[in-house]
Amino acid sequence: MITTGTRTIPRPQRRTAVSIVVTAVAVVSFACARHDNSGAHHVRIAVGGQNQMVYLPTTLAQELGFYREEGIDAELQDFAGGAKALQAAVGGSADVVSGFYDHTIQMAAEGREYVAFVTMLRFPGLVLVTSPQSASTLTTIGSLKGHVAGVTTAGSSSQMLLTDILQRNGLAGDAVSITAIGSAATAIAALEHGKVDVGMVADPAFTLIHRRNPGVRVLADLRTADGVNAALGSRAYPASVLYASGAWIRGNRDTTERLARAITRTLSWMQTHTPQEIADKTPKTFRGEDDALYVDALKASMPMFSPDGQMPAEGAEVVRTLLAASMEKVRNATIDLSKTYTNEFIHGR
């Protein structure tokens, strides 16, 4: 079970039969958003790790009251990673996903229509960092061969990004052993206890690891334009978004626009407030016990947040190119990239 605010949300049941999944998707896709007693549109949003800063706008929109002001009764469901959140949407237990944009391209490669409709991050916001025990020997990406790397969950965007980073440095995707370490406390424990040699982690986990273990080595920092360019060869890489099936969006256009407006209002609010003010609005369960550390993590991560919620066409192309380099299903598919995202619900575009 997952507890979010006053709601207790059951973990989605694993689907084993393809026919069950297809039926569930069809039912959910064409259903209109439900309404609560106040008339607000009830929307189930699956978040790929709510304690990660990369998904902070999804939580802040609720804490600031913007969902409610836009007539949305948002039910935030917390999952261990973006792949699990996507599973919830495909299985029918969520309407919308707060996850990475690349999942819509991966789904398009499988002939499934999922569309990002508001962009929260300009950069992935992840850091590839060594464990304290491995810092002295793992000095470059090339030295990772034969070692163990941690990602949030199998098939997650963190794994896909790691694979691309490895390939750009002359290593095959299977040159390292991949293991799921989740996010926040579980990821921190895996690195600090040496269960993995390196890990892809987001703030505030990275800042906590670095503060407690100053000797750890950063091999890639995807929180800034310079860091993304050094690791991925591009200064643009749109990451976390809200996305849903094309059928759900067509059946719930007004709700989609309200959700997009709530997030863009949140992004604008973040641009005009200090890291301390943002931290003050973040639930204590997500910012941890050390408030000063969380503020420092926010300061380092602020460049990654989109100022306006729009998806840049050139950024979307970069994501597709990167995916094609590391994933055969994307490389061999004919994908109309314009159908994997839309800016039509972003006001002021």
Mean pLDDT: 90
H/E series: EEHEEHHEHEHEEEHEHEHEHEHHHHHHH
Task: Give the termini distance in whole angstroms.
Answer: 40 Å
Q: Based on helices, strands and strand pairing, what is the structural class?
A: alpha/beta
Instruction: Please report which band the strand proportion falls in: under 5%, 5-15%, 15-25%, 25-35%, 35-45% or over 45%.
Output: 15-25%
List its traits.
349 residues, 5-stranded mixed β-sheet, 13 strands, disordered N terminus
Summed up:
The chain has 349 residues and is α/β, with parallel strands linked by helices. The chain is built from 16 helices and 13 strands.
Question: Your description of this structure?
Answer:
This protein starts with a strand and ends in an 18-residue tail after the last helix. With 349 residues, the chain is of the alpha/beta class. The protein has helices at residues 18-30, 56-63, 66-69, 82-91, 102-109, 157-168, 185-192, 205-212, 225-232, 246-251, 253-271, 275-281, 284-287, 291-301, 313-326, 328-331, and strands spanning 2-4, 7-9, 34-35, 41-47, 72-78, 96-100, 114-119, 126-130, 148-151, 177-180, 198-202, 218-221, 240-245. Strands 3, 4, 5, 6, 7 and 13 form a six-stranded mixed sheet that branches. A five-stranded mixed sheet has the order 10-9-11-8-12, sandwiched between helices. The protein has a two-stranded antiparallel sheet with strand order 1-2. 41% of the residues lie in helices and 17% in strands. Helix 2 crosses helix 11 (253-271). Strand 1 and strand 2 (7-9) form a beta hairpin. The protein has 16 helices and 13 strands.
